Amino acid sequence: MSDFNQLVVENAAKQFTLEGDIISVQPFGSGHINDTYRVITSINSGISHLLQRINHHVFPNVDGLMHNIEIVTKHLSKKVKVAEGKRVSDHVLTIIPTLEGKLYTKDSQGNYWRMFILIEDTKSYDIVETEVQAAEGGRAFGLFQKQLSDLDASRIVEVLPNFHNIEFRLDNLRKAIALDVCQRVGLVKDKLDFIFSREDRMKTILELGNKGALPLRITHNDTKFNNVLLDVHDKMQCVIDLDTVMPGYVAYDFGDAIRTIINPVAEDEKDVSKIVLNLSLYKAYAEGYLEEANEFLTTLEKETLVDGAFLLPYMQGVRFLTDYIEGDHYYKTKYDDHNLVRTNTQLKLVEEMEKNEEFMRKVIFDCI
């Protein structure tokens, strides 16, 4: 899972306020960004802990990152309704402070570490299999946004500037085209025509936000389905992975969730004819989301949700294509045209949504 030896990890765990002696520190989960370990102590309180090495190459502003998570989790903790026999820490990530009362610690090798209470007896899915699961994912992210809707977004640090700024992404693409360091632009003229012919439409949300027509809210910004923990009955329990929580527009979260839920194939499927939208999962997610979010969203925010569904695969396609033209230095690739295959998948997803736009908008209208 990582190249850290056991002694380094155990020494990191000892920097946090734990009851009892540490008796076990073992790798946990399959995350691609941070290294995660389960920590068990000699005190049998029914609580285990998660120790994580923060990838400060991806998130260089560790202080801002942890500042965001502290503000958000404290706010959520005041909002959560706890069932009998449950704790707040069963529904909200809970930070364990260091022995010095800090949110994280830095070791002698320059690694940053943090710790949370482990939320037990939950499960997550990489792929949505049922409408019930899709609806619960929608409720989870809708509730997450609703509970944070009265928290001032200006208090949250933008840890990844321009993350969902489509003008920024398109500017990067144009720069890559101008340099054409790998002589690949001539191979992707059709992809570039597809992208630039839709450019104005894809700026809708950003332009409305810049005009002040859309409120800047606190959004998750990584709403893939495995960032929702479900209980044993497949009911939503907690939204996790708060590293990308930043100020944003709600349609971005909705769009990224839809991007990952309704595409039935892998992100690098070579046969794009297999991309046939699972519209029943779209409907279920939208209904679940608006069941929680309908009351606090403005009318215009609701109307832009479908625009978000179009934008996020489009933007991801722009990012994959930019990397392909630049020589595949950002995303890990397994073969020469890997990023081009990924681009094709995302743009095909946009094309399929265009064919079903009337249905997608009617679902939102009916929910409202």
Walkthrough of the structure:
By secondary structure, the chain is α+β, with helices and mostly antiparallel strands. The protein folds into 2 domains: 6-117, Phosphorylase Kinase, domain 1 (2-Layer Sandwich), CATH 3.30.200; 131-367, Aminoglycoside 3'-phosphotransferase, Chain: A, domain 2, CATH 3.90.1200.10. 44% of the residues lie in helices and 11% in strands. It has 13 helices and 9 strands. The chain has helices at residues 6-13, 62-79, 131-148, 166-179, 189-197, 199-202, 204-210, 250-261, 279-293, 299-303, 305-326, 338-355, 357-367, and strands at 22-27, 35-41, 49-54, 105-106, 112-117, 217-219, 228-230, 236-239, 246-248. Strand 2 (35-41) and strand 3 form a beta hairpin. The model has no long low-confidence stretch (mean pLDDT 93).
